[in-house]
């Protein structure tokens, strides 16, 4: 690693020493005078270029004497072309005029928060995502945003990854792409492994913490991620990105676009492949994806067709690391069968329209279809025939009731529907009203196949030992309005009605018949106030309600007569945010009070599967602080801090008791305990240093406090706090024949911290010498020690 860093430093020094003439300047909006961040500035004949920074400034070096043709482009603005003679005296002021083409912004604005919306949010732009995008999944790229904790089954951020926000896991975080729901209709989760390298096709992500504004799909029960894919690029481009690093990890991405053809049409495409052996033994990932987008762009109308797909094969690391292996064998993987893999493909189709009607109205509508199919394969040693609904097998006078089996558990589903919204803004700007909603259907088949058995009996290959179907209809309509009561003072209201009908029938994987139909209607109101001061501060406060139906396992694992009740969340947010020159900050308080939150208690159903139960009262309350300060042209510091309390007022835990001849469970009642996987402290810090133009050095730190593996607040069932540090080097040059060449080195966990951000636990009683003894077994998902990724990105 020392040699790599030394050679990199020497290369950067040599490149910087070649400079000849240079030009510098600022790119501005001709109407407002505001700087344009990320504008492309390119010299046609000499093949040199730059991108404007956060202040609109740019510098192009190594230019030869003589005439140059300068081209400046920025999304939503007309391209500027200008002839110059080098060397120049002084700096340039380049002003771009807004284009008459309709912006794509409204595609996501109906489900987003704006500057005056009284809720807590943060928007991460494409440039910020690209800095870390060397192959790891979206949750890992968002690791340094407020209140976020991330984890990875394979330990290296590639493959199965997930995140929690304010302690709310992935199944409680609503995710939309261009306003279209992405959460699985049954499990409520989002599986980013099915969207490999999706970040390379993302323009920006807005994270709303808490209930936030009304959106489509699953209820927001802790946070939401509102993702907008790449927007129109007016100039043709091509991009090749390659990364390589620890654990034989590789990422290859090719992107290209036509730019604006005939001032109306554009096509963009991406092709990606990511592979990794993983930190955990055999936990490899083989991921492929593509993204294609074609659009028509008019003065008043935009029509886009997006098609994207992800295909994954990952070796399973779901079992976790037993506590006994934690000190001396952190890469241990319980699975040894060579094809113990997960295999899945998901194809997405989005047809999107947005339009402007007169000066007051905008509309947005989209049709979508997702087709997912795949299975995970498992080797099962000495499994009972009865578990598969099979009779015992008699051979040569001997009866066998179990055998070794290889099985595949399949999911084959279709998800389709439509969303729409219309936006009215009054002439005086005092009213901003949005009416929207969506209708979606999920149709999923669940079935299991036996593909091999050591003692087969009367079975045939691909015999299905369970088969069931589920259909879920989800409908919602919302009305949002912002009214300026007086200068700077805004009243916000948001009313949503959501209806669900869920039908399921067939034989479950535990051989039980699961037939049922459940219908829910939820009313989710939100109200708030915001006050924008002349100094740029925005003060806000809001109260919001969200209701949420149980997920699939709550229906299929519980006796049908004892379906859990829906959950309810009452959310209060209050805070202040500001952008003042070189300093921006956000400080907020939140209270999230749950009624009937569903948790694991150790209670089992009639076939021994653990089920979730409602607890009457629980809450999350905390303070979140975040900010960023540009100390000088070279130094920028930023960070965030969350301090919280996450409590269940009372619940009963059930512990299996094997100390007697007849199995039973013993009950324990707890009061005011911590909610599982909800650390009281989460903090991040980032320091950026730019010693020379185009060279950026970043130090990133992350602290996560102690977490409990269950809801008993028992120290013997917990995850230790951890503190990690990452280091990133980014360098960009504009060599001849390229728009830019970017070199990125990311060293993760530079001090080799041994930590586990996720795991699970279970306890049981066994006979003891004098009395029964409690045994607790903990399992962990360890993260990799020091590791790196090195990336090279060429833009044409």
From TrEMBL:
Keywords: Cell outer membrane, Ion transport, Iron, Iron transport, Membrane, Signal, TonB box, Transmembrane, Transmembrane beta strand, Transport
Matching InterPro entries: Beta-barrel_TonB, Beta-barrel_TonB_sf, CarboxyPept-like_regulatory, Plug_dom, Plug_dom_sf, TonB-dep_rcpt-like
Recorded GO CC terms: cell outer membrane
Molecular functions per Gene Ontology: siderophore uptake transmembrane transporter activity
TonB-dependent receptor plug domain residues: 116-222
Pfam families: CarbopepD_reg_2, Plug, TonB_dep_Rec_b-barrel
PROSITE patterns found in the cross-reference section: TONB_DEPENDENT_REC_3 (PS52016)
Subcellular location(s) per record: Cell outer membrane
UniProt topology in membrane: Multi-pass membrane protein
Keyword Ion transport: yes
Domain TonB-dependent receptor-like beta-barrel: 326-750
Domain of life according to the entry: Bacteria
Signal peptide boundaries: 1-19
Family in the record: Belongs to the TonB-dependent receptor family.
Stored PANTHER family: FERRICHROME IRON RECEPTOR-RELATED, FERRICHROME OUTER MEMBRANE TRANSPORTER_PHAGE RECEPTOR
Stated name of the protein: Iron complex outermembrane recepter protein
